[in-house]
Amino acid sequence: MQKQSAIYVAGHRGLVGSAIVRRLEVNAYANILKRTHSELDLTDAGATDDFFAQHKPEYVFLAAAKVGGIVANNSYPAEFIRDNLAIQTNVIHSAWRHGVIRLLFLGSSCIYPKLAPQPMKEEHLLTGPLEPTNRPYALAKIAGIEMCWSYNRQYGTKYLAAMPTNLYGPGDNYHPQNSHVIPALLRKFHEAKERGDASVTVWGSGTPLREFMYSEDMADACVRLMSLSDDLYDKILAPAGDESSEQGLAPLINVGVGEDLSIRQLAELVRDVTGYAGRIDFDTSKPDGTPRKLMDVTRLDSIGWHASMPLRDGLALAYRDFLAEYVS
């Protein structure tokens, strides 16, 4: 990417999209295209194609998606598969029609099987059953990966799929039912502290292991991937697994920190960061989800990129953001 390249960030108000915009601005990219949902509904194929025809973006970060935690995935499965399939289909197809040079499709670690070997490698995609609680979302993301690969094979495009681990950071969604685990816990512990509650109840047993990345680190990795030299970019694009096989896997790369902790340990960290002094209880009648989700980041390491934000420091920054945005 050149500093004057036309760069479209789809989903620029979301957790990842807003972080990508900030990173691009810090790196002096001057021609960033942004549209809110009210300005451009990406589930509308005609409107999406008209936008690409008019503005001719050269690079696309596809961070727009319907996302949420385990409660939201359980509650709105039809919306999760329908909206995500529509958004990614329209953007990827319009990108091809209008000559986008590179596209980075943002997926999710939930694309991997529920009982995938740990840490999860890119070649573990499609090797086992998915976690049922977020299967509609995961299937939509898998379809997006396959679409990128199919367009690369048939049309010679250069579309890469990046699979982030669990993300948190500034601009997160702190809705009490529809948010991911870190923003949900930050809000829950803060409100318990304000009310003087004796305990906070966390879903599940607390034993599942999860990996978490600060959103600004994710954005830095995304911009790094999109600005690689042609040789390095083409190397990353090569399908994982058997690169000589037409049945090889899609061009995807894991983006994570390479270490994890239990939900119990995470809850204890959030309790400390928020200053809550009460007890943590675990509701074992609620689902745990996948037992462990740790990303193998060997391919990312090969381009010399590593996450830099320690989890405790990132949680403190995220809590500061929550207080600024939601607490008067």
TrEMBL record:
Residues the record lists as binding NADP(+): 11-17, 106-109, 141, 164-167, 180
Span of domain NAD-dependent epimerase/dehydratase: 7-228
The keyword Oxidoreductase appears for this protein: yes
E.C. designation(s): 1.1.1.271
Residue positions binding substrate: 188, 203, 210, 288
Sites annotated Important for catalytic activity: 108, 110
Catalytic activity: GDP-beta-L-fucose + NADP(+) = GDP-4-dehydro-alpha-D-rhamnose + NADPH + H(+)
Protein's pathway: Nucleotide-sugar biosynthesis; GDP-L-fucose biosynthesis via de novo pathway; GDP-L-fucose from GDP-alpha-D-mannose: step 2/2
Keyword NADP applies: yes
Described purpose of this protein according to its UniProt entry: Catalyzes the two-step NADP-dependent conversion of GDP-4-dehydro-6-deoxy-D-mannose to GDP-fucose, involving an epimerase and a reductase reaction.
Family membership noted in the UniProt record: Belongs to the NAD(P)-dependent epimerase/dehydratase family. Fucose synthase subfamily.
UniProt name for this protein: GDP-L-fucose synthase
Species this protein is from: Uliginosibacterium silvisoli
